[in-house]
Amino acid sequence: MAGIFESFGNGCLSQRSKTGFYASAYLQSDVIMRCYDWATGVSNGDWCIVSGFSLPMERAVLHFLLKGSFLIVVVLVRRLYQIFPEEWRSAMDRGRMLIVST
User: 85-90: long-range contacts at Cβ-Cβ below 8 A with a sequence spacing of 24 or more?
Assistant: First the structure.
């Protein structure tokens, strides 16, 4: 299976224990608030969060995670972006982010 994935960022994050975050495209308002509370309230310690961050709620949570000191693994369902968003590049430069794609 080697070689079927492309990645950019801190490859060491692939070896860490991770917590997955996935959200439905359709969420009730109380669930949305709980997601925001989780994203802003979890410890900024040594967590590594993995998600596709493709749905609106997932992107909103990513925004909060990037403001903290979380380690982040983004799993894209398509090929790697040509240009990464600025806040992603900043996290990658600090070794906090790994982006993986098929």
Answer: 87/63, 90/66
